[in-house]
Amino acid sequence: MLSWTSVRRAFGSLTAMALLVGLIAAPPAPAGAASRPGAALLAWRVRQTPNQTVPNGDLVSDSCTTARACIAVGDRAGGTGLFVAFAETWNGTSWRLLATPTPVGASFTQLVSVSCSAANACTAVGSYAPRVGRDIPLAERWNGSRWKIQATPRPAGATSARLLSVSCSSASACTAVGSYVLLGPRDIPFAETWNGARWKILPVPGPAGASSADLTGISCRPANACTAVGAYTNRSFALLTLAERWNGTRWRIEATPNRAGAAGSGLSKVSCSSARACTAVGSSSTSGSARTLAEAWNGSRWRIQATPNPPGATISGLSAVSCSSPGACTAVGADFAERWNGARWTLQVMHSLGGTVLAGVSCPSQNACIAVGRHQDGLSTVTLAEAWNGTTWRIQATPNPAGTFGGVLRDVSCTSASACTAGGSYNRGPFGPAAPLAEAWNGIRWSIQAVPSPPGALASELSAVSCTAASACTAVGSYDASVDVTLAFAERWDGRRWTVQAIPSPSPGTSFAELSGLSCTSATACTAVGGYDNGAHTTLAFAEVWDGTSWALQTTPSPVGAFYSFLRSVSCTSANACIAVGDQGTVTSANAPLAERWDGTSWSIQVTPSPSANRTQLFGVSCSSANACTAVGYHQNNSGVAVPLAMAWNGTSWSIQATPNPSGARGMFLNGVSCNSPNACTAVGSTGDEHLPIVAEHWDGASWRVQAMALPFGATSADVRAVSCVLATACTAVGEYPGGSDTSLTLAETTF
Question: Could you tell me the CATH number of the domain that includes residue 350?
Answer without folding.
Answer: 2.120.10.10
